[in-house]
Amino acid sequence: MKQKIKKLLAMFLIGVIVFSILTGCNTTKQSTSKNGKITITLGMHVADTQKQEPVTWNIVQEFMKRNPDIIVKIQGSDKDTHVQNMKIAAQAGELPDIFWMDSSVAPQLNKAGDLLDLNDFLNKYPNVSAALNDNMKKAFNSDGVQYGLPYQALVTGIWYNKSIFEKNGLKFPTNGTTYEELLNDVRVLKSKGIVPIVQGAKDPYSVWAFLIALERYGYFEKIDDILAGKAKFNNPDFVKFFDKLVELGKNGAFPSNASTMTYFQAKEEFLAGRAAMFDSGMWDAAAIDEKLGENVGFWWGPTFSDSSYNQKVKMDVPSAPLCVSAKVGKDRIKKDAVYKFLAFYYGPEAAKISYAGSVIPATNYKVDVDMSGKYAFKQLVEALQDPTWKSPMAQPDLVLDQAVQAQLYDSMYGAMLGLYTTNQALDKLDAILKQQ
Q1: Do 384 and 271 reside in the same domain of the chain?
Q2: According to the model, what pLDDT value does residue 35 have?
Q3: Domain-located, residue 1
Q4: Residue 369: what pLDDT?
């Protein structure tokens, strides 16, 4: 009898152990949370999403309001720190569920198998797929793997303070204003003690308008050969462009403290009326409206008479991608929650929130927008609607790997701030490319 009881106890214990193992394995694959709620994480490239990316913040809040069973936990830090954190997290297998990633780094994570292929998401949500134009999807597709989707549309250019131009007897810049006219404006403004173009070089990526200008010297007709080693960055057309950057710097176009100023500090200088122009994009339209109202204008930057390439270039391209951790694909419950969030983020309601916040989403939904009080955003939209100005498929820096991209920023700011000659700036690009 005792032997029988021992056998029964042994069988019971084995059953308990097996059950524990099975349920333990199940919990590693399927997310659980208190009160039946699930938490997904969103990694952002700004330290304070509510303040610095308010449209995204509002989209997240509205999503959670409509989906009370899903909590979206935002993790954020400044761009450079965020990118570095994501690299470390990828190596440790601890990436956020969804995260913004620099376009030069995302392909590396995809190659390492760290990212979820979003073709499955697009197939399950065909309305979202249809709302994303082909160029928006192709930007982050490699060998058929959809490793990301655009965070937003990327629309960049130069904002200007109309009051400053009027008070100094200068005409407003328009699409078609020449480099020579800009240089004259710079000289006049500098002579009056006014910062002509405020730039924050501590955030080296903040050269958006000058990347547009680079395309006016045939960037996308040259870059494939340059990257293949068949041509060089130091070529006659790029020499002309970098000569312009050097000349602008010598004529005082940029703040004397630009090298120690961040992009956000540059923005505050413009909003405070202490600079005539600001190199930025659509994401700042709401803040500019709040501070400057109808005293603001927008243009695509100068055209160049010494270039044989198309001068009517605007910038309306996919921004950096939102990516999803590959681990999400191993967790059915979490994957469903992530898919729901992405479907909302790329859905019509989020598009309405974006336009209300003066941000153009990556999607093509037709949305009625109340433009009252949106002076800056209206000027940007009007510039976009001119069919004679064409956009490349991508922003020039976004087709480069991280090291070459970083050197492009350094070379441009180095020329602008008098740190490099034209040849030094371009030779540095060729040298870093040779190392890759």
Answers
A1: yes
A2: 75
A3: no
A4: 84
| Nearest residue to 281 via CA among 218, 355, 207 | 207
pLDDT of residue 31: 61
| Shared-domain flag, residues 201 and 248 | yes
Per the CB < 8 A criterion, the answer to whether 348 and 365 are in contact is yes
Q: Are residues 207 and 330 in the same domain?
A: no
Number of domains in the chain: 2
Are 121 and 342 contacting, i.e. CB atoms less than 8 angstroms apart?
A: yes
Q: What is the mean pLDDT of residues 103-111?
A: 95
What is the share, in percent, of the chain residues with pLDDT greater than 90?
89
Distance in angstroms (rounded) separating the CA atoms of residues 417 and 420: 8
Can you give the pLDDT at residue 8?
43
Beta strand 145-146 with 141-142: parallel, antiparallel or unpaired? antiparallel
pLDDT at 368: 87
Which of the two residues, 253 and 372, has the higher pLDDT score? 253
CA distance 350 to 342: 10
CATH at residue 403: 3.40.190.10
Dist CA 406 CA 404 (whole Å): 5
Q: Within this chain, do residues 72 and 170 fall inside the same structural domain, yes or no?
A: no
Q: 197-208 as b/e, with b when 16 or more CB fall inside 10 Å?
A: bbbbbbbbbbbb
Distances (CA, A) of 120 to 116, 123, 350: 9, 5, 21
Q: Give the pairing type, strands 153-161 and 149-150.
A: unpaired
For residue 116, the enclosing domain spans 38-152+319-357
Q: Give the Cα separation of 238 and 307 in Å (integer).
A: 10
Specify whether 138 is located in the same domain as 195. no
- Do 417 and 294 share a structural domain? yes
pTM of the model: 0.82
Q: What is the pLDDT of residue 32?
A: 56
Number of other residues whose CB lies within 10 A of the CB of residue 348: 15
Cβ-based neighbours of 345, under 8 Å, separated by 6 or more: 59, 63, 322
- Residue-averaged pLDDT of the chain: 92
* Phi, psi torsion values for 334, nearest 5 degrees: -65, -40
